[in-house]
Amino acid sequence: MPSLFDLISDKKIVVFDFxxxxxxxxxxxxxxxxxxxxxxxxxxxxxxxxxxxxxxxxSRFKKFKYYHExxxxxxxxxxxxxxxxxxxxxxxxxxxxxxxxxxGAQDFLQKLYEEKxxxxxxxxxxxxxxxxxxxxxxxxxxxxxIFGSPTSKYDNLGIILTKHQVTxxxxxxFGDALADWQAASKMGVPFVGVGKEIKDLLxxxxxxxxxxxxxxx
Length: 217
Known about the structure:
Layout: H1 4-7, E1 13-16, H2 26-37, H3 42-54, H4 60-71, H5 78-98, H6 105-114, E2 118-126, H7 127-136, E3 145-149, H8 153-164, E4 171-175, H9 178-187, E5 191-194, H10 196-201, E6 210-212
Parallel strand pairs: 1-2, 1-4, 2-3, 4-5, 5-6
């Protein structure tokens, strides 16, 4: 397995997902989804939690719509999705701001910053919310751009390529979710899976480049 710095040695931009890649916040959001659906009973909560954990890169807007239509047989209006998203934000933002770093992530970002290597966040968290979290965690200096939802991760990768006039091979994407890998693979961007879950999910995919447990060097 090449070192982290070997992986990025020929890259112009390093792209990171946020939850589960830079900060240990996946469990916080899983708990929030449980709270959002607890009024519908334990069987629905279990389905929601399972789907969320297997689809970490999917935006909450799409998840709320999917859960209501698939598990509850109800269609949500845009205003309902926006209301639920606001409630979800209230449940998670403070906790995410105070959550622990993924081991080694802060030191890795600091080294990239010192080496003047450009870094970008591409997250499924709503745009204004991810910007707020990054600022309040005092992480903003590490990133030249921050991209959130509702724009898809695939489209956000395309925006990076166009804005910074780079090719897919000049990027590398560190992600922990199937949606991260799918976006990177579709765009032709090299991908590094972070954590055991994504390694297990992609065990049989030959075009997944590398896996790491965390960023400890």
